[in-house]
Design goal:
Belongs to the ABC-2 integral membrane protein family. This is Transport permease protein. It is found in: Cell membrane; Membrane. 80% of the residues lie in helices and 0% in strands. It has 275 residues and is mostly helical. It is globular and about 60 Å long. The model has no long low-confidence stretch (mean pLDDT 84). It has one domain. The protein is built from 11 helices and no strands.
């Protein structure tokens, strides 16, 4: 009699474990995004070369343009550094943002996103989590570039608040641009294709802008493009914030960010659902 009575509690315990009342709650959008964002940051930790490229490239541009061209373009290296550094912040973040599409296509080729889609999580969280990890890279890169600039003689008249506001604007713009590479990554599906097309587009947008020189001396046809280039709006607004000037270009810069989000977020999510 005693032996026959043992299985009943065991079955009852199994029913409790498998029952709906003890199942963990489905993770929400925020928790899924944060978890996969931590995954993206862990990948950076395991591949430090990513951060090496993210920090060394903008620092090299700062050094090269300041000391090779600063005297010719700005009258002195000190004056030119005041003009150049906010623009290099934008350029650095933009070039880092291409890694969003490269990393995405790599995960797609390895089948990782197929596994994510089989999990009971918010569907877009693999994309938003990866972009959240990229934001951390943008912040680290920007802080390093500003620190190097301060060591070289950069003196932001906007003070600490102006520098922080400028960095936040640049990071926001990088986050918005990352959705372009997300869409391209979902469409092209090869890291080489995304990297090549990304460098072509960014080379046009950054060099045909006001990052390195004032557009006042440019030919009319080129100046017309620079005047509507969203990169120019963000660069000018960052300069104004860091230099303590009236941020007259902050409105156009934020509008550019909003337009990028309104256009590329829905297109990326639609493409992701169909992939």
């Amino acid at each position: 009699m005693t032996t026959a009575a043992h299985p009943a509690p065991a079955r009852h315990t199994l029913d409790q474990v498998l029952g709906e009342d003890v199942r963990p709650a489905r993770p929400g959008a925020l928790s899924s995004t944060l978890t996969l964002g931590w995954r993206a940051m862990t990948k950076i930790k395991r591949s430090p070369g990513q951060m090496f490229n993210a920090t060394i490239t903008p620092v090299m541009f700062t050094l090269i343009f300041t000391y090779l061209f600063g005297g010719a373009l700005g009258g002195s290296t000190g004056d030119y550094l005041q003009f150049l550094l906010p623009g290099v912040l934008v350029q650095g973040v933009l070039f880092i943002s291409t890694q969003t599409g490269v990393a995405l296509t790599t995960d797609l080729q390895q089948g990782i996103f197929d596994r994510f889609k089989s999990l009971p999580i918010w569907r877009p969280s693999p994309l938003t989590g990866a972009l959240l990890g990229d934001v951390a890279r943008y912040l680290i890169s920007s802080v390093v570039v500003v620190a190097v600039g301060l060591a070289l003689g950069f003196r932001p008249h906007g003070g600490f608040t102006g520098v922080v506001a400028g960095i936040l604007l640049v990071v926001l713009f990088g986050f918005c641009v990352s959705w372009i590479w997300t869409l391209l990554g979902l469409a092209l599906r090869t890291p080489q294709g995304v990297s090549a097309l990304g460098m072509l587009i960014l080379s046009l947008l950054t060099f045909a802008s006001n990052i390195f020189v004032s557009p006042g001396t440019m030919p009319g046809w080129l100046k017309a493009f620079v005047d509507i280039n969203p990169v120019g709006f963000v660069v000018t607004a960052a300069r104004q914030l860091m230099n303590g000037d009236h941020p007259g270009e902050l409105g156009p810069a934020l509008i550019s960010c909003a337009v990028l989000l309104l256009v590329f977020v829905p297109l990326s999510l639609l493409r992701y659902r169909k992939s």
